[in-house]
Fold these 3 entries.
Entry 1:
Amino acid sequence: MMMKPRFMPWAAAILIAALAQTALADGTLATVKERGFLQCGVNTGLPGFSNADEKGSWTGLDVDLCRAVAAAVLGGADKVRFTPLTAKERLTAVQSGEVDLLARNTTWTMTRDTSLGVHFAGINYYDGQGFLVSKDLGVKSARELDGAAVCILAGTTTELNLADYFRTHGMTYEPVVFDTADQTARGFESERCDVLTSDQSQLYAQRLKLAAPDKAVVLPEIISKEPLGPVVRQGDDRWLNIVRWTLFALIEAEELGVTSGNVDAMRESRNPAIRRLLGLEGIKGSGLGLDEGWAYRAIEEVGNYGEIFARNVGEASPLKIERGLNRLWTDGGLHYAPPIR
Amino acid sequence: MNGPPPRRGAGRWTGWGDPRLRAVAFQALFLAAVLALAGYVLHNTLANLEARGIATGFGFLSETAGFGIIQSLIDYSETSSFGRTFLVGLLNTLLVSALGILLATLLGFLIGVGRLSGNWLIARLADAYIEIFRNIPLLLQVFFWYFAVLRALPRPRESLSLGEAVFLNLRGLYLPRPLFEPGFELVVAALGVAVVAAGLLGVWGRRRRARTGRGLPTGWIGLALLIGLPTIAFLLAGAPLGWERPALAGFNFRGGITLIPELMALLLALSIYTAAFIAEIVRAGILSVAKGQTEAAAALGLRHGQILRLVVIPQALRVIIPPLTSQYLNLLKNSSLATAIGYPDLVNVFAGTTLNQTGQAVEVIAMTMAVYLTISLAISFAMNWYNARIALTER
């Protein structure tokens, strides 16, 4: 009984459908405007960064960046549709044009920026990899983790940093790799592994999700640099600039003391930096292909970076993460926006 | 073939009126179209990748992988290359598939025969087994074994143990590892001799029975040889075998052989699920042998076991083998569910982590698909060969 390859033409037809999509036109801005909403890739569920509530409305630091871009481009922070993506899917979704913007706690690395057909538009959260362990283990430092089983999320830089860290310190470990953050948390909770490793911001979020958050503790060590930022497709410089400068505008607004509450009053300000930010003088967004109110709308509808941080992950949120590296440069942090002029 | 008779006159050009010529022309046209389509797809893919600034080619395979893998049959460390991760994943897929096929076949035959048993309880139990495991989605069964059963095991410090040598906990099953000391070659050599001797004995016994009609329990003698000779050699050489026992050190057991729970869960789910299908195939095969065959064999004075072994099973196998092949192929492909519970198979390691770290989606997925296709075709080929060998030879 020989199977004849009778299904060959059908397979070919399906392939065509999958691959024959012609090179996407470069005008993401025009596409988004015509479509009327921004398609934004976010995390499938990470409290503080992008998380959907029971009504399906999204909140988070990354989600707010999407909203700010939508406000700047389309004049409405609600003109966004969110695509939840796993760590493995996220960059492909940008490459294929499925999303206009990826704001999904994604670490900026050279490989991703230079060889995957995507560009990072900036950094909206300075993170670092840490470890979450059960208090029962009595471990005080990551250096005592030799031989531990480690739960980890597939397709992340975390996987590589973990290997680097243990190798550098001559320690062994057993990697238990899962596809979603929930699965890794479940693996940790059921004690399949001794340690859960991830970006520290996520560890705080995942600790809150545990049945008994008090029984787990985040170790002090940070073993890597994890600059998280928005990602856009390579080859559309205008769109890259729009996302980059929207983020800068939010940071600049915090530095200048412009908030969602006082932005209208600030229009009367005589400080030229504020007047330039709000499009009252200077370049006014024409270089971005937007009108003069782009930054004003983003700040008015979403708030400045400080407000976004406080609301989602900072003191006004259940996570209560310290600003730390994410302070403005004027306060000893790393956020520094180039001048808007 | 009894198609329409050729209407073609000798050497006369009849053009499109000739159905055979027409058929060939259409086939050639179609083939050309398919090839053109394939070429277009390839060209377009490359052009698109180029246009979007995505690196292409297989150069990434020699770069350092830099991530750990929990289970590897070959030497692997973080400094190995991405090409090596491909091999590790491939071997892990083959391991779980081969073990799964073996277990599913054994279990399937047992259950299949059990379902036909005259014993009411055994037959009903086999019935229940088949109906339960055949009708629950495999992914759920994988989750069941992994999240419900294996997670209920005790923690490393409270492990279940068997003679302080075998330990079972929620991190896995820990077995002692044999350590071969000098002199063990003698045992291996003795085993080799025993295998050859048993084989020769079997051939001689069969010839003798054909010549004289008298049977000899060659099976039992062969078994005695296979066990006896190596045992004698083992004792003579001074028991050259040690054991490395797993021991609790730090967080986990170290030393010995570890069966990770991901492997156990996947293996259990795959073999139990597939065994249900194999059982039905076996039952169908046995029922396909006419009752008269069994009665005739009984009339000749064969015992129950002999009837099964010499008359029923050889004929049943002809019906069993083709659908059994499909089940083997299914099991192999289903093993990619590994990725749901983190077993480091090809899809998880290579089409998962490696794809992500390199971003070479087209190359990685193409390689992965090629692997499944190759293994499936190989199984299919082997089973077809076996099927042809046991098929009814019509004279």
Entry 2:
Amino acid sequence: MTTTIGHNVDLPERAYRIRRHALRMGEVQGQGYIAQALDIADVLATAYFHAMEYRPEDPHWEGRDRFLLSNGHYAIALYAALIEAGIIPEDELETYGGDGSRLPMSGMAAYTPGMEMSGGSLGLGLSIGVGMALGLKRKGSKNRVYTLFSDGELDEGSVWEAIMSAAHHKLDNLIGIIDVNNQQADGPSTEMLGFEPLVPKLEAFGWFTQRIDGNDIEAVRAAFDAAKQHPDPQPRMIVCDTRMGCGVPFLEAREKSHFIRVEEHEWQLALDALDAGRTA
Amino acid sequence: MTDTTARAPEKVRLKTSAMIASIAAEGQATKPAPFGHALVELAKSRPEIVGMTADLGKYTDLHVFKEAFPDRCYQMGMAEQLLFGAAAGLAHEGFMPFATTYAVFASRRAYDFIHQTIAEENLDVKIAAALPGLTSGYGPSHQAAEDLALFRAMPNMTVVDPCDALETEQVVPAMAEHRGPVYMRLLRGKVPLVLDEYGYRFELGKAKMIRDGADVLVISSGLLTMRALEVAKALEADKVAVGVLHVPTIKPLDTATILKEAGRTGRMVVVAENHTVIGGLGEAVAGVLLREGVAPKFRHIGLPDEFLAAGALPTLHDRYGISAEAMSGSIKGWL
């Protein structure tokens, strides 16, 4: 495969390639948060190939839209998107998680071009996003801050501090994306600490809120467009219900867990299944 | 017969466990809000500076900055995790936030946020944290006895503990000059003015001899340097010559000056700090001396490893051994 892809490539193809890069990184280490990477690939494809402005050759370009990965363990997915976007060379995925690699298992800003924050300690991203959005407004920039975080992070009080703050400061340049795969470390997210009903809750907190099937890429595209075009001075949230392992049926069917085990021989089977789904 | 009739005391000293209490002695020269005024002065030529607080602007002297630059000051609400995460975000965008709260909340509540969003990325966020050590009589909720230990342990963090109003004014521009995060223990309100009479000048990372003395060397920071200077004057009457080495930068520590002064033979070394005896200046200095094989007679004045009481500050400073009288007594006892 090559990273120099024309702009005529459609979003489903981008999502397929992001899933493929992620599976190859998983194969390198024999582990990784691959089920999460597969569930969020459609969102990342839409962010990087439809919604956001950036320059692959200059990841720190001032005119870029910012993308914050709060859930640092999703780094494998973001690396895949950054590879697809041409910010990281594709052959670097062979180093994933290795000593000295720019692609550590948990995302950190100092390691990776295009990684805007050090995540991993969950619940940080939206607070940073509030500060960045305030900073962009102060500079008169029209750019936006996208912050991806997971449903489990809704357990953290700091996330709700940031949710209140973004509405208070009318941060219409802040777009939050929640990955609701209903799985966190100890079990289903809704059973760990209930956060539903999420949409009325977020609306009551002052956010323009949409809830979509995060693996329906047309719905994701429409939601990003609506979030960008919404006229009112308020922050925007896209709640994405996703399926862990999406794109690889036998992983999707596997018993849900925060860290889905993939046997050594299964990585190739997963790639084959993904490829089969692409041509189906 | 003994007269048991209750009598009003001739003069009632105000006893209070109020949150905010002045550390200035009666009649001592003070300056109002030195941090706030110094920040305003600096911000005139540094447009990237913004102020941020978590519902404690009035009590961290940031209100002075807000009055001067209302559109450069962010009220984040009583949300310290958000305060520091958002400060990191503003620093990412090229601004230099001066974020204020109380030391207890910066150190204990928001530690992971400062660690991960600010220090790990070496961002230019400057933290000014009021009520450091035992400068509130309100009880453990507001007594930051362990803040130095926590921030010393954080990589990339520079830690400063100024002594008085003069030094606070000089620390503010030095914080801005330094690339990376800085934690400053903030003395707020009417802050004593002490170091002007010694011709002192703050330099980040430098320990300085404020006065010399052949018998005892007090190594101190912050409020306890002010106390040490009182002790030195008081002990002159007892023919005890006390030198005072002021170490306002707790990290990085000026080990060369500490080794040079502590290595002078014949002087007892007393480290004095407004902080728990665990993990602060005392243990830092002891570690330096031990590693370098410098072994003077060594004593340590600091707060005990316990939850401190509520009460009037003078009472508490006496009880925990950090008033000038208590320090003088300890030092004379050790000679």
Entry 3:
Amino acid sequence: MAFTEEQLVRYSRHIILSEVGGKGQKKIGKARVLVIGAGGLGSPIALYLAAAGIGKMGIIDADTVDLTNLQRQIVHHTKDVGRPKVDSAAEKIKDLNPDVEVVTYQKYLDAENALEIYADYDYVIDGTDNFPAKFLINDAAFFSKKPLIHGGILRFDGQLFTIIPGESACYRCIFPELPPQGIVPSCQEAGVLGALAGLIGTLQATEVIKLILGIGNPLTNRILTYHGLETLFREIKIKKSPDCPLCGSNPSITELTMPVQEVCDFNPLEAEKKDQ
Amino acid sequence: MIKVRIPTPLRRLTGGKGEVDLEGTSIAALINTLDIEFPGMKERLCDEEGAVRRFVNIYVNEEDIRFHQGLETPVTEGDEVSIIPAIAGG
């Protein structure tokens, strides 16, 4: 399929890059990416992928836009409060770039629907805000062999890495089990700087575009962490673990099930209040 | 001295400090010293049996201690220890 004149102009700053070119821009236009979560991370991911001219973008999120979201979830505007997040996001994507085919799923990803939804996409990006979802997304990526860009943010810090299932370290190679509830605070409990979501989400979008184009070094087998207060990036080398319960040599997880987060009696937030 | 980097979720114990300098010859010794200076640190990093919790990763100079000698991994002057927990926000 040849570009229209308008597309040639729209994507001219990509096409002029020798690493992209017309050929690469066509790869972007054929790529199918599933964005899970239309929140802090999902907003810049969806907007930059839309601007880049991604062929098909799936967006899954069960929630509606809340006023507390607008401090960081830039795909949603004040007028969208109360609307389903997927509808609000789809509208902005279409406004930005009508070339993009958008598919919305106003539901939570679960063990029953994950593999079926993944089947329609080439790449998955994690923009969710809770551990059961992050583990489920990783497990489903392994079973469907879809590359995944993981991301997480809290307060002033973020982390991300790319997972090529079966080839590079997966989320469970590094974190075999879910932390019990209450051990690691959520953004709702501990706060998050809005612009941090933009930074980590934009890095995730950059990494998926690199995978689509097949250029550069993917962010595999290393975690990139960002420390906002120090303005510092760090890289930690990670390895595929032979003991991984999912992708190791003797896995205990052999089919997709919803990861369960145990409730812990020990609540660090409560404990810290007592400490003070 | 060994530089220990404190991850965000644990900085409330260190009064917000992101790095602390400690003396010690192994990861286990460093964790014990950390817990003396910042009470509560050990129970956040280790389970009841004393093993590193499975959602916490500890690195010496950016190498995972799981691929070395675990808690007995030796540390020497100038080493840098990073603690990387899973974080879920999005």
